[in-house]
Amino acid sequence: MGLDLARIFKAYDVRGVVPSEFDADIARATGAAFVRLLDAKEIVIAHDMRESSGPLSAAFAEGATSQGADVVLAGLGSTDLLYFAAGSLNLPGAMFTASHNPAKYNGIKMCRAGAAPIGQETGLAEIRDMVATGVPAYTGTPGSVREVDLLEAYVAHLRTLVDLSGIRPLKVVVDAGNGMGGYTVPAALAGLPLDVVPLYFELDGSFPNHEANPIEPENLRDLQKAVRDSGADIGLAFDGDADRCFVVDERGELVTPSTITALVAERELAREPGGTIIHNVIVSKAVPELVRKLGAVPVRTRVGHSFIKGEMARTGAIFGGEHSGHFYFRDFWRADSGMLAALHVLAALGGQAGPLSALLDGYAPYAVSGEINSEVADAAASMKAIEAEYAHKATDIDHLDGLTISLADGSWFNLRPSNTEPLLRLNVEAGDDDTMSRLRDEVLASIRGGRD
After folding, report:
1. What is the full DSSP assignment across 88-99?
2. CA 215 to CA 439: how far, in whole Å?
3. DSSP state, 233?
4. Which residue among 134, 379, 393, 426 is the one 20 to 30 A from 317 at the CA level?
């Protein structure tokens, strides 16, 4: 098609610069290939607020109907709203979004009926190959298109999963980053005893205020300041497609996603004692420790939604959490929902009298570095050298996802190569700040060879 499909068909989705890498022709062909692969009779499509999302999703719908499939157009929505649609309607789905990427990007997240993920090993490679070679012509009757508004049903379903009755009044600052949280948050929080202070709720895919990527500290500064200035009880930040949520306490301090994972895990285990909780290799060891203390089963897995969802399906886990702010719920078709996680935190905070920092104090007993990236010429060689350096003093070494080394004092670190860039990603955890800082700096010095 004159474009590099291998560049935009990623591990879990399609994503590229519009229109130089990803355009309406590719969207149209992908829609046709999606229907052909799944032999789908009907699909559902939603899109975010980016300027190109509406036209690209319309082209995808054209491709789908050209293969005889009927199309349900859900219009504007968050990615977890699309998962709700695919789950509740039991239809394959496509979400047009580039999530937290800058404005020039767009993409497609696709799933099977019931919100089961589609990645390179579960259909995305076949779709890419069909787009490259041409989707066979369909000689039957083209499909039809109908529009539906699923926002009310999506919110109603979330409310069945979290009991918010009786929570005390709270002041909540929400930074939607001009992304889809500006559309879903007002509906999801309506009718609750909340004084909501909105930041950047205007849907604007040019992201005029800051990138809609709350994992980067600079993108949380406006939220942190607003929480402190307004005397709010809590701050919430959503990424561009609102499937991730980050939390700030009443002091304006970031609450790590590991801490939120522990909190929600305890709430879900109270509802279903003895259940299984999934966590990836980067999540604080406080999570599996808490899960075991509660008499339940922690399962450790690789980073990435396909691995989390796969393990949830295999083990019947009720909940899973990642360090990146993705939270997965069995009763939400094992899909991730930042909004559902946010509702859990609001329910926990509003169900007791103390501040959020005090409520969460026991869930975060360790010092963590956060993820630190280092550019390297050869990630595999760097990891091999680090493993050799620490082999004599490690109490455990594993390669489930990159390299994880545990030490006798209880500290540990993980090194993972980026899938798309010449980077090594380092995460460190220890019992106190000094130990964590020393280990962090020691490993970084080894990786960077004296470079700043």
Report:
1. HTT--EEEE--T
2. 22
3. S
4. 426
Amino acid (one-letter) located at 201 = F
Tell me whether strands 297-301 and 276-280 are parallel, antiparallel or unpaired.
parallel
Paired residues of 170 in beta bridges: 194
DSSP helix/strand/coil, 85? helix
Tokens 């899909």 identify what position?
335
Is the pLDDT assigned to residue 436 strictly greater than 60?
yes
From residue 202, alpha-carbon distances to 116, 332, 382 in Å are 31, 27, 44
Q: Where are the domains of the chain?
A: 5-149, 153-251, 257-337+356-363, 367-448
Q: Which of 52, 53, 57, 99 is catalytic?
A: 99
Please state which of the four CATH numbers 3.40.50.720, 3.40.120.10, 3.40.30.10, 3.40.50.1980 is assigned to the domain occupying 257-337+356-363: 3.40.120.10
Please tell me the distance from the alpha carbon of residue 68 to that of residue 211, in angstroms, as a whole number. 39
Q: Which residue has the tokens 């157009």?
A: 73
Q: 5-149 has which CATH code?
A: 3.40.120.10
For residues 310 and 231, which has the higher predicted lDDT (pLDDT)? 231
Superfamily name and number for 153-251? Alpha-D-Glucose-1,6-Bisphosphate, subunit A, domain 3 (3.40.120.10)
In terms of Cβ atoms closer than 10 Å to its own Cβ (0-12, 13-18, 19+), residue 163 is: middle
Q: Is 366 helix (H, G, I), strand (E, B) or coil?
A: coil
Q: How far apart are CA 115 and CA 43, in angstroms?
A: 12
What is the C-alpha to C-alpha distance for residues 14 and 90, in angstroms, rounded to an integer? 22
Instruction: Read off the pLDDT of residues 88-109 as tens digits, 9 standing for 90 and up.
Output: 999 999 999 999 899 999 999 9
Q: What is the 3-state secondary structure (H, E, C) of 123-186?
A: CHHHHHHHHHHCCCCCCCCCCCEEECCCHHHHHHHHHHHCCCCCCCCEEEEEECCCCCHHHHHH
User: Could you confirm whether 99 is annotated as catalytic?
Assistant: yes
Q: Which residue has the tokens 């590719």?
A: 26
Residue % of the chain over a pLDDT of 70: 98
Identity of residue 4: D
- DSSP-based three-state secondary structure for 217: helix
* pLDDT for position 133: 95
Alpha-carbon span 363 to 434, nearest angstrom: 20
Would the pLDDT of 2 be above 60? no
